[in-house]
Amino acid sequence: MKNVDTVHGFSQYNHLFNDNFFGYIRADALHDGIADLQYRVTVGPGVGYYFLKETSTSLASEAGSSFVNQRLDDMDDNYATLRLAERFEHKFGNSGARVWQNVEILPQVNKLENYLVNAEIGIEASITKRTSLKTFVQNNFANEPAAGCEKNDVKLVSGLSYKF
Description:
The chain is mainly beta.
């Protein structure tokens, strides 16, 4: 029985307009063989606001639009979405330890009953200046999953992280 077949990566560039208000461009790529998702690439711009922006703690919300290109259940699909997101992070002094949480919802613009919700909560602790132990729970929810697949995909991930 297969229980792991996931690759995920994202990149986000933020440009501050003032101390709290920013614009962003984000690209996200996901493969989830268990959910019969060969690929999902999501790209789009938006704006965000830091409600809390301190050295050790940040809380921000984001809103924007995205374009989704995916192959789900051997069918290609492209559509526009809205993107509403929230991010929180707290760093514990200079120890390198931190906790974080984020959630985003992406409803299809012309079919609101088709939506994605991605959420993550985690903890990281430094082992050395360059390495740390990271553990997080990730939940990916697709309201319209591939045939025969569950809507919810929850993962518990632990690993070593290396900082360049």
